[in-house]
Write a structure and sequence with these properties.
The protein has about 375 residues and is an alpha/beta fold. It has 14 helices and 10 strands. The strands form 2 sheets. The chain has a 5-stranded parallel sheet, with helices on both faces. It has a 5-stranded parallel sheet with strand order 7-6-8-9-10, with helices on both faces. The protein binds 6-O-phosphono-alpha-D-glucopyranose. This is Glutamine--fructose-6-phosphate aminotransferase [isomerizing].
């Protein structure tokens, strides 16, 4: 029952712990042993083949999920993809290339700007409209041509957690389906991706097991006023989401930057009072990230690094390292979100804020 906190002190923590289960529910009936079951997009999935462009529109945490999807869609399906916040999209003239899919992301399906963007898009020349949404009875679902439900169950904590990771799961399903229908994925590659997806609930469960260790780290944030999150590639939107979570519930000012932009401004803010948080990817960007982190360390910044053992990070002076499980690269944005959710949760508890009902914020922004 979603309205029962059970053994948990806050809904947010309960919802973080529910993620293995709800990600499994999001995958249920959508994958076979070796491919995506395209019937999950409705009876007629022919539109997948016709897509030549994608416009993603969303707000808040859902917007960050869209930013991750851009990396997946362009990488796997070789299709141009733009991502925009709904409040900007709805008030400008948008150029729409032929055969563009209009894709909205929303936990509630009631966000005023996202709905207005959809209504505008329906008057324009899109191929079709698809909503990835958590609430089956929502206005967004009713008004979109197609829907892929995230199946996360009711989310009560204002800071979105399980809705985000299930959106990412649904977006990865969508990206693989489009890539495959467009002939961009070999059967073998599709099978490998689907096999990775099957392991996702177990990986997320393993990441949650770091809870106690992350709780200890959170104590270091009790007196901080600022924090800087760094990421590269699809870990950049995860850094943005980590910074959003921290500011929403702990009221610590937090910013996120693509690590490569460090020298273009944020480095000026770094001194011994500034914590820098990063989730390390295990790919060719790792060395570049490490050299960015050295620059931060050289200026006295205190590093908080989450990464798999394979990344080679270790605990050292000024470096707080927390191990998270190794996962296939494609899944890193989903699994690496977990330590940042736990970090912001525990920091908020240390600071004594109202975790589930942060000041000035609403679960769903239904008026402009
Ligand atoms: C509010 C919520 C956020 C959410 C955003 C978009 O700001 O507090 O958690 O990400 O709205 O909501 P949606 O329901 O459209 O995903």
């Amino acid at each position: 029952d979603a309205s029962d906190k059970g053994e948990f002190r806050h809904y947010m923590l309960k919802e973080i712990y529910e993620q293995p289960k709800v990600i499994a529910a999001c995958l249920e009936g959508r994958i076979s042993d070796d491919r995506i079951l395209t019937s999950c997009f409705g009876a007629d999935s022919a539109f997948l083949k016709d897509i030549e462009n994608i416009h993603i529109v969303a707000c808040g945490t859902s917007y960050h999920a869209g930013m991750v999807a851009k990396y997946w869609i362009e990488d796997l399906a070789n299709i141009p993809c733009t991502v925009e916040v709904a409040s900007e999209y709805r008030y400008r003239k948008v150029a729409i290339p032929k055969n563009t899919l209009f894709l909205t992301l929303s936990q509630s399906g009631e966000t005023a700007d996202t709905l207005a963007a959809l209504r505008m898009a329906k008057e324009l020349n899109y191929l079709t409209t698809l909503a990835i949404c958590n609430v089956p009875s929502s206005t967004l679902v009713r008004e979109s041509d197609l829907t892929l439900l995230t199946n996360a169950g009711a989310e009560i904590g204002v800071a979105s957690t399980k809705a985000f990771t299930t959106q990412l799961t649904a977006l990865l399903i969508t990206s693989i389906a489009i890539a495959s229908e467009k002939g961009e994925l070999s059967a073998e590659k599709q099978k490998a991706l689907v096999t990775a997806l099957r392991s996702l609930p177990a990986y997320v469960d393993a990441a949650i097991k770091q809870d106690e260790a992350i709780k200890l780290v959170s104590e270091q944030f009790a007196n901080k006023h600022n924090a800087l999150f760094l990421g590269r590639g699809p870990m950049f939107p995860i850094a943005l989401e980590g910074a959003l979570k921290l500011k929403e519930i702990s009221y610590i000012h937090a910013e996120a930057y693509p690590a490569g932009e460090l020298k273009h401004g944020p480095l000026a803010l770094v001194d011994e009072t500034m914590p820098i948080i990063t989730v390390a990817p295990n790919n060719q960007m790792l060395d570049k990230l490490k050299s960015n982190l050295q620059e931060v360390r050289a200026r006295g910044g205190e590093l908080f690094v989450f990464g798999a053992k394979e990344t080679g990070f270790e605990q050292a002076e000024g470096i707080h390292y927390n191990e998270i499980p190794w996962v296939e690269e494609i899944l890193e944005p989903i699994v690496h979100t977990i330590p940042l959710q736990l970090l912001s949760y525990h920091v908020a508890v240390v600071k004594g804020t109202d975790v589930d009902q942060p000041r000035n914020l609403a679960k769903s922004v239904t008026v402009e």
